[in-house]
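Late entry, written up from scratch paper. The run itself happened at the end of the previous shift, but nothing got recorded in the book at the time, so transcribing now.
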Amino acid sequence: MNPTPQQVVDRMLETDVFSRWLGIKVLELHEGYSKTSMTVRDEMMNGLGVAHGGIAFSLADSTFAFACNNRNQLSLALDTSINFLKPVMSGDVLTAEAKEVHNGRSTGLYHITVWNQNGQQVAAFKGICFRSQKKVIE
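Output as recorded:
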């Protein structure tokens, strides 16, 4: 029996200490799709008083990973890029949604949108993954 997308992501989160440190909550999952959220904390601010760009990137990257691995085919980032559209501040609640654009045998393409609690898009992320022949859950 194949594991569900939720079981795969739960397994990933067991050892994903960084996503847990970020405080990422998984809101919704289905094959090739994930939606997450997190609250930005003071220790995530940079020297200019806004969230370090790595915070929005990391939320998008984890959301990407949950979407591209949740069919239980171990997939790794091959290429990623992000556009920062608005500053992120301490206390902001960010939501990220990963949508599968292409599900190939050896690669996948995903677009991840990140927005704040006011519905303003703060980042646009694109991820391409490489699909291995391994399983997340054997």
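Residues 35 and 97 are 4 Å apart (CA to CA).
(Scratch paper discarded after transcription.)
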